Amino acid sequence: MLKRCISAEWLKLRHSRIWIILMTLPIISVLIGSANFYMNQGVLAKEWYSLWSQVGLFYGEFFFPVLISISCAYMWRLEHLNKNWNMIMTAPVSAASIFLSKMLVVGVQLIFIQVLFFLLYLIGGKLLGLTSALPSELFEWFTQGLIASLTISALQLSLSMRFRSFAVPIGIGLCFTFLGLGLYVLDLGMFFPYSLLTMGLGVLSQSGFSSQSDYVLFLITNLLYIIVISLLAIQWMRKKDVVA
């Protein structure tokens, strides 16, 4: 049943233009960050780490969270059109399969975005003439950012499921992004999904987690968020009457 739902979701995306958006924003992030690095090389002297601080700032704090929100909103777009909610809720598939299939497809999109961004980062660094060794934390930034992005996608999928408007959950996500930045500055980042993305990507601090216990807490917090939010969303689909 889950496999059929996943196939249906991919069919929706086959001729979609969402991929253009998913590719454009990482490119813009790297272009802006690389330009800023190039113009301030006198101050930004740590080569790859300094470049990451620039491209990662635009990507992790602004463009990537927005991309997650857009991707999640698009996954529910067809359900909110016409009377499609009535059709999907009467189909012989479970609410869990519907939600989890969307989570998995969004997860694949996030992997694509992450891989594209990291490749662009490497290309940008080479074009700027960086010759030092790549950061040893690069793989950690990739995986930790991906984990945190899945947490945000669970939340954004739940919001997009509840709101018929395409723009409203994206706007809420943008507000959460700024809230997450504020909580991170106040050292409360471990308790909010959008702050977890900042921590995972090493956007504002490339020094990593201060201890192994903090890293374990990061993983556990993300896992709990994903499980709890997904269960609540599935329960809502089972119990609530959907306004089509």
What would your notes on this structure say?
With 244 residues, this protein is mostly helical. It has one domain. Helices cover 75% and strands 0% of the residues. The protein contains nine helices and no strands. The chain has helices at 2-13, 18-39, 48-75, 84-89, 95-127, 138-162, 167-185, 193-201, 212-239. The longest helix is centred in the middle third of the chain and has 33 residues, at 95-127.
Q: What percentage of amino acids are in beta strands?
A: under 5%
Tell me, what's the shape?
globular
What order do the helices and strands follow? HHHHHHHHH
Uncertain stretches = none
Helix vs. strand class: mainly alpha
Let me know the largest β-sheet. none
Overall domain count: 1
State the helical fraction: over 70%
Average pLDDT across residues? 87
Protein name: ABC transporter permease
Keywords: Membrane, Transmembrane, Transmembrane helix
Transmembrane segments: 20-39, 51-76, 97-121, 141-159, 166-185, 216-237
Organism: Lysinibacillus irui
